[in-house]
Amino acid sequence: TVGFNVEGLKRGVRECASVCASPSAHKQPSAHSTIMGLSMSKLWEGMVGKCEMRIVMVGLDAAGKTTILYKLKLGEVLTTVPTVGFNVEVVEYKNINFTVWDIGGQ
């Protein structure tokens, strides 16, 4: 089995969620979008829209990077083979899309 700091991962997700919730994380409507409907849709998108984060996992060979990636993606531990190159997966959690890059070891 793979041992990793689940509490640290949860804390990181909470921090990402707070960044996504901040007004500075979203584009503000431009001065030209003064129409009420457009302004309201931008406001709604900013409140409940999806936030995107990128994560790069690097480490030594056989450290469990790919196993962690697929545990996050699929919710179960899979038998994996050594990564040649990299794996990229999008993991969705609440309103956050994480693009996770798993870079081969060494």
Short recap of the structure:
The protein has 106 residues and is α+β, with helices and mostly antiparallel strands.
Please count the helical segments: 3
Order of helices and strands: HHEHEE
Largest sheet: 3 strands, mixed
Give the overall form.
elongated
Instruction: Classify the secondary structure makeup into a structural class.
Output: alpha+beta
How is this structure best described in words?
The chain has 106 residues and is of the alpha+beta class. It is 37% helix and 22% strand. The protein contains three helices and three strands. The protein has helices at 6-21, 36-48, 65-74, and strands at 51-57, 86-93, 96-103. Strands 1-3-2 form a three-stranded mixed beta sheet. Strand 2 and strand 3 form a beta hairpin. It is elongated. The model has no long low-confidence stretch (mean pLDDT 75).
Question: Which helices and strands appear, and what pairs or packs with what?
Answer:
Blueprint lengths: L5 H16 L14 H13 L2 E7 L7 H10 L11 E8 L2 E8 L3
Characteristics:
106 residues, alpha+beta, three-stranded mixed β-sheet, 3 strands
